[in-house]
Amino acid sequence: MPEITTDDFVLDRPTLNDVDEIFAIESDPRVWTHFPSGRVTRREDAAATLARRMSRWERDGLEMWMVREVPSGPIIGFAGCSLRGGTEAEPKGPDAFWNLGYRFAPEAQGRGLATAVSRLAIDRARQVDPTLPVVAYLLEHNTASARVAQKLGLRLRYRGPDADNPDSTAVRLVFADRELTPPQLPATLR
Fold it and tell me: How far apart are CA 138 and CA 174, in angstroms?
């Protein structure tokens, strides 16, 4: 059963049946032009990620949606808010935040889908737990993602080195809907 249906797309929770479509997106080098080392190269890694997302939907009440063409077309991407920071024992610890993320097949990019789905994701995150900030972190040279974050009303809260990036010159930007607490900001940099 879809979570949300609009004139342009259908959002639903992930299932393990989605693994091949998600792997096709995650393994496409065109999707990873801003962070080539993040590309998924093994189907089993995509399956493990989907299993974690399914589990987090149950635990947190929100995670990434699978984005499909209407009425019941193929998956063209995924987007949503995921709970980050915290620990397994205390997922909503003092460093917890909603991480806004989106990734679309190249053929679906440039159509405004990231912005449209992200608006819905932010609204849902605020319904599930409005005490947590919504954060989008990205690399500075990913100007399209930065524009989406700005369109959504997120403000730049941090600009600095991307510590674990294989590219030592990479710069991370952290956008958020509010100021981040001293425990939250470092959690966005891991």
Answer: 7
DSSP lists the bridge partners of residue 102 as 79
Instruction: Please write the tens of the pLDDT for every residue from 114-170.
Output: 999 999 999 999 999 999 999 999 999 999 999 999 999 999 999 999 988 889 999
Could you give the C-alpha distances from 169 to 39, 140, 149, 164, in angstroms and in order? 19, 11, 22, 11
DSSP at 14: -
For 15-75, give the secondary structure using H, E and C.
CHHHHHHHHHHHCCHHHHCCCHHHCCCCHHHHHHHHHHHHHHHHHHCCCEEEEEECCCCCE
Burial group, residue 35, by CB count within 10 angstroms (0-12, 13-18, 19+):
middle
Q: How far is CA 158 from CA 24, 53, 60, 142, 178, in A?
A: 32, 27, 26, 15, 12
- The C-alpha angle 15, 18, 19, rounded to 5 degrees, equals 110
Residue that the structure tokens 């609009």 belong to = 6
Whether residue 131 contacts residue 156, with contact meaning beta carbons closer than 8 Å, is answered with no
Of 22, 89, 24, 28, the C-alpha closest to 49 is 22
Please state, in angstroms and rounded to a whole number, the distance separating the CA atoms of residues 173 and 35: 14
Q: Which has the closest alpha carbon to 142: 29, 28, 33, 25?
A: 33
Amino acid at 17: N
